[in-house]
Each structure stands twice: as C-alpha cells, then as structure tokens.
C-alpha cells in the first residue's frame, strides 16, 4: 500500500460536533427543563390497581412509583423546552438516553454534601421472579445506581453494574408485600440524573386477609413444573381450598375478573396481568413497541387492526436459537361463569415456530397457529372458545429457531354471538 497516496480514513465527526456544541452543565439542563412535582405518594398504589410500568408521559397513567420520603433530593417529572439542543446533550455524556417527552429528573440544585435520591413502589405479592428495566442517564460518573428490596423489616441493597440502557435488576418471588427501591447515592452539586421508561416484567398477585382460615395458597415455587405439551400443572395452583404445610403466612391470593385477567393490547409497555415466563417456561416472552428482528423473518409489519400504537408480545431472536426452549405466557387465575370466545391476532412468518393456546392445563390445547402464508403475516381474530368453569389460559410457543419470530396482539373477549364481552 502507498501510505502517502492512501491515508488512513479517520472519523473525527464526533470530535468536531462536540467542539461546536459544548456539553451541558447540570444547571444548564435544569434551566431548560420544565419541571412538575412528583409525589411522595403513588398516584394509585399497585394494590389498588396502579401500574408498575410507567412511561411518565400521561397525567392519568396511575403510576405506582413515587419519591422516597427519606431523601433530601427529590425526583421531578420534567420535559425539555424549545431551547434544548440534542447535540449538546449527546456531548454531555457517553451514555445514550432517548428523549421521549416526559421523564424523571433529580439533581442540578445546590447541596452542601453528597446526597441520595430514590423512587419506590410497593408490590403486594408476586408470582415467580420479575425483572425491572429502565433507562438511566447521568452527566458525570459520580452517582452510583443501585436497587433495594425491603420486607419484614429487612432491607438489602445492591449496586447495579454499568450496562447499556435499559439497565435491569430482578426481584425474587414473594408471598408478602415488598418495597422495591431504585436509589442513586453520591449525588453531588454538579450532578444531574434522568430516569425514563420504567418497565416491570412480572406477575403481580393480590394479598387478601382471610378472616376465617388464614393461609397462603401455593405459588409457583410449590408446584411441580409440567412437561410441555402433555403435562398438567399441579391442581393446587388453581384450587382456592387447597393449603400447604410449607407456608405459614396468613394471606391468600384473590383472583381477577375474566376481563381484567385476559384482555390486553400490549400498547402500554407491559403485559397487563399476564406472566411472560409462566409455569413450564424455559425462556420468557418479550414486549416490544417497535418493529423487531431482521427484514426477512422478523416482525416487520405493523398490525393493521391496532395502528394507534405499536405494541405486542413476541418470541424469537436474531442472535440465538431457541429451538429447545418453551415460551409460556400465563394468565392470572379467573373464574369463567359462561362460555366465551377469546380472540387475538397472531404474527407468523416462519414455518417452525408453533403457538398453542391451552386451557387450565397443557393437555387441553384447542388452538394451533395457522400455516405460513407468503403475503400474509398478521392473522386477525383468531378465536378459541373458553368453557364455563375455566380458570387459566396459557399461550405456549415451541420450536423457535434462530432468526425466527412469532407475536400475538389484541387479546379480547367476545360472547358466543360475537359481541364485545367486556363492554
């Protein structure tokens, strides 16, 4: 190679951009932000129906997260005004953060010594483990991000190791109320932090006091895992009158109405009341609010029956094969008092993945996904009849190879005559 005639092509564009757009200070970011108080009490607690997944964009979001009461520095809901410069923001920190309307902001104000800021939520009880994900940004390396879990007068905290957004941590299964806390320590005067798109991937249950016979029904940890697709979950998981000698708690789990338990359009960043890693799962379903996967076999077409906002549950990956995994999306418990129809949309573009919809156990699977069609990807209004007395619904996918995907959307309930059951 002629080193003189063929110089190395170095990219200095980022350096040039940041030379022309100096970084923001914490005071700069605070000054170009419109801030709204974020309460020390939840808008609506999770126990009363509030949401554990929050985008902070909607005033009527009924978010179950709130400021911690024991901190000096508080979070505010904030959004940038018209003077905001995205180039300057990108040059302030190497950490990427998508600006999406309203977010949480803390810091950028005078303090005499390093402080902490924290948000919390109270989970009444939880089937299985959950994962909490969110976007985090700081203008310096001073703040330390960690999570804390508090129950039965015990508090444990753990640093969240540096990772790209969204950062995440897990919450173990619990049959008693637990406080989950996202905490930032070592927050100094020149520091400012942002949090957004807080997503809870888990299955919340309800704690109810039983005045007559205090007890706790078995959760997923006390039932045998079925072998898909021919196994059956332990009947104790579905029977309100079954007790267990392994527990001594004085609470039990109540159930939801069929409309609350089963309907979901996945447009709010969560799976409603469905557990994405239900009983028998070896891998979890995921939620997406954008097109997913490669252009040939990925989910690259919007659902024309749900164009208001892209949101769906899916399985599949371009980076690894899941051919030996079971994906089980499990409804919470309900009691069906009449025969109804569950309707949903399915995205199928590969031959191998197969969806089955099972009622109460994995022997009664009355629906199998349709064959692949060359020019049709979303199949609308797939119907399955749920008989009176049913208590559970399972969406089960197997045989998902690398670069293969399957999705579902718009789970609705209809009467046998085809009318909307949940009106």
From TrEMBL:
Domain of life: Eukaryota
InterPro entries assigned: ConA-like_dom_sf (IPR013320)
Descriptive protein name: MAM domain-containing protein
Organism: Caenorhabditis angaria
């Amino acid at each position: 190679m002629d080193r003189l005639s063929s110089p190395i092509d170095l990219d200095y564009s980022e350096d040039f951009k940041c030379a022309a757009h100096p970084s923001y200070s914490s005071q700069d970011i605070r000054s170009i932000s419109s801030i709204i108080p974020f309460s020390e009490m939840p808008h609506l607690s999770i126990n009363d129906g509030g949401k554990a997944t929050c985008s902070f964009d909607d005033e009527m979001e009924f978010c179950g997260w709130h400021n911690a009461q024991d901190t000096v520095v508080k979070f505010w809901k904030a959004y940038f005004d018209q003077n905001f410069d995205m180039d300057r923001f990108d040059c302030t920190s190497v950490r990427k953060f998508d600006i999406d309307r309203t977010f949480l902001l803390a810091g950028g104000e005078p303090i005499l010594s390093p402080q902490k800021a924290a948000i919390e939520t109270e989970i009444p009880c939880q089937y299985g483990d959950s994962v909490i994900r969110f976007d985090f940004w700081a203008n310096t390396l001073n703040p330390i991000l960690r999570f804390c879990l508090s129950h039965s007068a015990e508090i444990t905290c753990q640093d969240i190791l540096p990772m790209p957004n969204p950062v995440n941590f897990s919450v173990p299964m619990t049959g008693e109320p637990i406080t989950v806390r996202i905490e930032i320590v070592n927050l100094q005067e020149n520091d400012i932090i942002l949090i957004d798109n807080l997503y809870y991937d888990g299955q919340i249950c309800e704690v109810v006091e039983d005045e007559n016979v205090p007890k706790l029904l078995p959760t997923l940890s006390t039932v045998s895992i079925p072998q898909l697709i021919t196994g059956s979950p332990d009947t104790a998981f579905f029977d309100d009158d079954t007790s267990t000698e392994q527990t001594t708690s004085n609470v039990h789990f109540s159930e939801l109405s069929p409309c609350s338990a089963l309907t979901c359009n996945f447009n709010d960043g969560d799976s409603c009341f469905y557990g994405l890693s239900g009983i028998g799962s070896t891998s979890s379903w995921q939620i997406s609010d954008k097109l997913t996967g490669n252009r040939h076999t990925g989910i690259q077409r919007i659902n024309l029956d749900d164009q208001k906002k892209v949101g769906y549950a899916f399985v599949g990956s371009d980076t690894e094969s899941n051919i030996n995994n079971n994906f089980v999306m499990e409804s919470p418990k309900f009691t069906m008092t009449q025969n109804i129809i569950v309707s949903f949309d399915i995205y199928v573009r590969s031959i191998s993945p197969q969806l089955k919809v099972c009622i109460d156990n994995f022997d009664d699977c009355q629906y199998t996904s349709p064959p692949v069609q060359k020019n049709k990807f979303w199949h609308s209004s797939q119907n399955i009849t749920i008989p009176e007395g049913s208590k559970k619904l399972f969406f089960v996918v197997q045989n998902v190879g690398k670069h293969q995907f399957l999705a579902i959307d718009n789970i609705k309930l209809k009467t046998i005559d085809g009318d909307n059951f949940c009106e």
